[in-house]
Amino acid sequence: MRRYLLVLDMDLLAMDEEHDLAPINYLVAKQEQEPCEVVVLSLAEVRQTKLPAMEVVLGARSGKFPVAPKADHDIGAAAEHRMNLAVRHLRTIGCQASGLISDQDLVKAVRTESGIHDYDQVVLATGRQDSSRLARVLGRDPVQQLRRKWGERLIVFPEGHRQESVS
């Protein structure tokens, strides 16, 4: 049985709606080939509640201010809800599924979990992990950092988004 680590920072069905069901279709295809186990890693990163200073400055110049989550927004509860929905959906398509929540950033969360358990692939279905061009050039982009370890076993959705291999 193949094991997959599915990393989410947004609702799986919302991610699927945005990207033509690509993450779910990918896992359905894998399940049809061979029974699979999927561990859903739901990110509840606290830094997501803070706006980057540059975003605020640029917003002030253009007159459009970015919107941060409300102060009473429970990030942990949202991550748990997201995880439970994904696990339920994965079980519906026939996968063995379980979940966990991490308050670490993407790279640390994946490294920690994959250091404890063995996975055949890591599937990133994340919508908020964009990094600056400078971070990509310097090799500090989270996907680039994970690609160094996982290579082709790192699957990133939307497909083609930052899929290039890192030398």
Detailed description of the structure:
It is a single chain. By secondary structure, the protein is an alpha/beta fold. It has one domain (2-157): HUPs (Rossmann fold, 3-Layer(aba) Sandwich). The chain contains seven helices and five strands. Strands 3-2-1-4-5 form a five-stranded parallel beta sheet, with helices on both faces. Helix 5 (106-116) runs parallel beside helix 7. It is globular, with a radius of gyration of 16 Å. Mean pLDDT is 77; it is low at 65-72 and 160-167.
Topology:
Elements: E1 2-8, H1 12-18, H2 22-33, E2 36-43, H3 53-62, H4 75-92, E3 96-102, H5 106-116, E4 121-125, H6 133-137, H7 142-150, E5 154-157
Parallel strand pairs: 1-2, 1-4, 2-3, 4-5
Walk across the major sheet and give the strand order.
3-2-1-4-5
Query: Can you count the helices?
Result: 7
Q: Based on Cα principal axes, name the global outline.
A: globular
- How big a fraction of the residues is strand? 15-25%
Rg over CA atoms, rounded to whole Å, is 16 Å
Order of helices and strands: EHHEHHEHEHHE
